[in-house]
Amino acid sequence: MAEKRYFISHAGADKPVAIALKTELKDDAWVDLHEIEVGQILIEEISSGIEAASDFVLLWSSSSASSEWVKFELHMAFIRYLEDKAIALRVITLDETPLPLYLRPFLQNRGAASVAEMASSLRSSLERSTVHRLFFNRNEEINALEECLYSPDRVAAWVVGMGGSGKRSVAREAARRFTVGSGGHIELSIDQGIAEPELDLLISAALGVPPASSETDIATLQRRIGEHVTRYVETGGVWIFGNAEVWLDDDGTFGRLATLVMSALLRAKGSADRLAVFTSRRAPTLSEQWARVTDIVRLPGLDPKFAVPMLRSRGAKGTDDQLLMIASELAGHPLAIEIAAPQSPLNAQQLAQHRLRVATDLIPEGRIDSVTWRLLELLAVVDGPMSVRSLADELGIDSELMGRAIAEAVEYSLVEYGEVEHLQLHPLVRDYYLRSFRKQPDSIEVTSSLATRSSERLKLLPPESPEFVLSLVASFKLLAMAGRFDEARALRSGMFGTLFAVASEFFHEKQYEKCVIYIDECLTGNLEIDRDPLAIKAKALAHLGQIDAARAIGDELVEAFSDSPRVLRDRGRVEYIARNWGDAVGYYERALAQRRRPNPNVLTDIAQAEFRRGRLDAAGAAAKSAIDLGGDTPYTLTLYAQVLEGQGRLADAEKVVDRAVQREPRNAAYRHRLGRIAQLRGDRRKAQEQYEMSVELDAHQTESWFSLASLALEVGDRDRAETYLQSVQAQPGLSQPVLLNLQARIALMDGKPELARTLAEKALVERRDAQNIVLAIRTTIQCGEVGVMAHDDARAAVRRLAKELESQGKLAEVLDQARMYPKYF
Hints:
Elements: E1 6-9, H1 15-24, E2 29-30, H2 43-52, E3 55-60, H3 62-65, H4 68-84, E4 88-93, E5 107-110, H5 115-124, H6 139-150, E6 156-160, H7 167-178, E7 185-189, H8 196-207, H9 218-234, E8 238-242, H10 256-267, E9 275-280, H11 288-291, E10 294-298, H12 304-313, H13 320-329, H14 334-340, H15 348-361, H16 370-382, H17 388-395, H18 399-411, E11 415-417, E12 423-425, H19 427-438, H20 443-459, H21 466-481, H22 485-491, H23 496-508, H24 512-522, H25 527-543, H26 547-560, H27 565-577, H28 581-593, H29 600-613, H30 616-628, H31 634-646, H32 650-663, H33 668-680, H34 684-697, H35 702-714, H36 718-728, H37 736-749, H38 753-766, H39 770-786, H40 791-807, H41 815-820
Parallel strand pairs: 1-2, 1-3, 3-4, 4-5, 6-9, 6-10, 7-8, 8-9
Antiparallel strand pairs: 11-12
């Protein structure tokens, strides 16, 4: 086939327009002249035509919108566009049929009067650039950054705001306004896997200079990094470090790398307008030294007058009043607005139901196709450059399915483009999909396959390119996650930060054995640098039951860093895991004493340990102090509610846990706690409602299934109770004492006292609490009543159990049975 510049995609009904446009373009266009029914005969020819074309022209109309053939051609072109930007996408609308969101950036001509006008617009214009996220008014924040830039004292600004609030957009826009030319600013995205070796690689690639060798010692790397940072700002360049919260210690002060970069900025000479911008979800705690040279710019939500245009730009429908309500309910959060827009208009009730999902989960559950979900999982684990074709091959899908998946991911704002135009997940949702991926039975095999693909791609890249560095880090991490450590080291030795990031991910996913393996791989022998990895290793070993080894590591860290609140708190956590509540409190109190002001998180730790210790007054005081200091997290509120429940203050407990549920309405555990307190207060309706919502949110919330079964038994609904138990019995980690207790109660209701007593005795073996003792008394009495047990034997057993109940201070629990069957007492 002779090469043509234009490939004109169209529906059969629009073929006359396509042929006329081909003629107007002087035959420099490909139009299939066959009928669509010939099907597969044309696939190879169409594919060749799209490969050869430099411009893909889509004639959009009601006919093409419903044409499967057009969708096929469009997906092929879209894949090629994403793969290497080797084809320009142009859309010409022939009628008023709405254009899909992901095609709007490519709109070339709307409502042209003639074919000649269409051809003219195609010939005269360059490819329309991809529309990036629109930048809405942030003048106040940019002015603050500008004042920081020209202040003779300031060297850094921290732009602080919640995830997805637009911190990076503000930093980029400011840098574009402050500098001239493509090299006026450098943006680096930071994560937990960035230590000195990785940071040197990133900075060297950004500056176009050779990186240090993999054998370079850490002190030399630190010196190199500092020199690069200093020289660049001396030339007038602006650094942007994204996600810089990972460079802060747990008390918010600058960690090792933040201190390194900030010190380098201070050394810059001959430039009053030196500046680095750090974007962070967390505001730093500035010492007196750093407060003099650092500004903190807090980023609130968008003003409604700008949030409404943003909603409209993302396809939202509705009146101004309707959109103002949505903007207000979402607090002007830009990313939440992007995701809510396609669902608009929403009424107040719908917003109340979906607000938290939109603003925090950012995952449109139940709406994403399974193929898209799998793609998002792969992007989460790759976390770096990988071709669309490789991803499609890994998924085992064709270009059409891949195009649909990408389009859907883009539509929901879950995917964005990286520095080298590769697909990547929005950082807010990566962890969610990574955990989803690791739950799959073949996750290790797939990770290894992706590692191989990434490593093969790396071999084809020039070492001096920015893509090489990103691919190197991604390949190293994939090989490490697949357990192929020797191959990872062969790519680049010394990347301990990346290994630590993998170890941390496994720790938070409670995969402690894997965590320990990766920690051992990342240790450097330098206690200052190994402090955080060793602290995680100690906690992981404690979870694995290796308490002595955990304590040995913790004691070594405490001896070396006796004034570190983080080290003392981690040492306390080892004792907490070992169930030594008093020792845990001791370390937590030492950590608290090392801080300049009381810390809500450590107070919550103390409350948690004191509650486990059975000291309700001390637990309540610590939890209340944490809440009063601003640490009113849903977890702390729920913990305080448990304390109040234990003290018998049920009304207060219900108010507190209500606050936790309002803050995090999609948390099944908090819903269960609210239901339990309502049940204790005698509000069966509310208890039932909360338990049902709990299992709807999380089908693995076994306590709520048990509570629902218990409520059903209380009103004599045996069948419903059995149904609830069937929903939960196959789940792992089931509480056997509770299950046996409920099965025994059902057996009693079925008139099978002997079976009920057997089940009750098994429950007692598992857990000798008041609830199971009372049940054992009831079943024993019933066995005596029907003659399964001799009366004297039953009476002796009942008295023995009643005495045990009395020793627990719970004798009142059995008074009803004593009144009904006095002869057994």
